[in-house]
Specification:
This protein is of the alpha/beta class. The chain is built from twelve helices and eight strands. Bound molecules: phosphoenolpyruvate. The site of phosphoenolpyruvate (PEP) has 14 residues, from strand 8.
Length: 249
């Protein structure tokens, strides 16, 4: 069965609650689609107003992070139950910015992935190499480790429902998109890794996005590669261009 495409916007630390609602209103008609799952991953404080604003549309709300404990003395953190209660369906985990600035590791990402599944939230688990790693020829070794550790103790049935976002760090926010061949090659490598860890059926079911400076011009070719099932989009998710990316066909 063909995998359904999924295009998610990662708003990062942009938009106040009132600005977020205004952006949703602007994008709503532009991202309408019967063919593609559309997700707006927004800052924690924007989740409740955005969830209200997208009611009755095809847009699902995602969070940009989540803690792996149920509740308690973790000042400043957001629990999975809080996200579920606010209407969140997806959560971005292990984004390279969180790995770089907030000490996320493959192990903490794994704890968060497991916790998201416990609460019925779909993880969008990010992976991707630095420019140095690409130049050293260790891209796939590095990504395989991120994927394998990130998925430890995740069952095949759970893995089938999740999303992996391949985001080369050198392409995020730089305006430098990976070539279609580079993106397809790594996404195919991730699928092969899933087949090794689980089985072919799981590898065929899991959705793998490309992320890194995707725009309206690059989306059509990227999203029609055999192993690329949509995109995780940063900068362009805050603009009307996001509608063109969702409707890339
Ligand atoms: C991202 O934040 O996940 C991302 C891919 O950003 P950009 O599209 O701006 O490179």
């Amino acid at each position: 069965m063909a995998r359904r495409k999924i295009v998610a916007g990662n708003w990062k630390m942009n938009k106040t609650p009132s600005e977020a609602v205004a952006l949703v209103e602007e994008l709503k008609p532009l991202v309408a689609s019967d063919d593609v799952d559309v997700v707006f991953c927004v800052p924690a404080i924007d989740i409740i107003p955005v969830a209200e604003a997208v009611k009755g549309t095809n847009i699902a709300v995602g969070a940009e992070n989540m803690y792996f404990e149920e509740k308690g003395a973790y000042t400043g953190e957001i629990s999975p139950a809080m996200l579920v209660d606010a209407g969140v369906k997806y959560v971005v985990l292990g984004h390279s910015e969180r790995r770089e600035y907030f000490a996320e590791t493959n192990e903490t990402v794994n704890k968060k992935v497991l916790k998201a599944f416990e609460h019925g939230i779909t993880p969008i688990m990010c992976c991707g190499e630095s420019l140095e790693q690409r130049e050293q020829g260790v891209t796939m070794d590095f990504i395989r480790q991120q994927v394998k550790v990130g998925l430890q103790n995740v069952t095949a049935d759970q893995a089938k429902t999740m999303v992996i976002a391949y985001e080369p760090i050198w392409a995020i926010g730089t305006g430098k998109t990976a070539t279609t061949e580079q993106a397809q090659e790594v996404c195919a490598g991730i699928r092969a890794c899933i087949a090794e860890v689980y089985d072919d059926a799981t590898a065929e079911a899991i959705r793998i996005q490309y992320g890194g400076s995707v725009n309206a011009a690059t989306a059509p070719e990227l999203f029609t590669q055999a192993d690329i099932d949509g995109g995780l989009v940063g900068g362009a998710a805050l603009k009307p261009d996001f509608g063109k990316i969702v409707n890339y066909k």
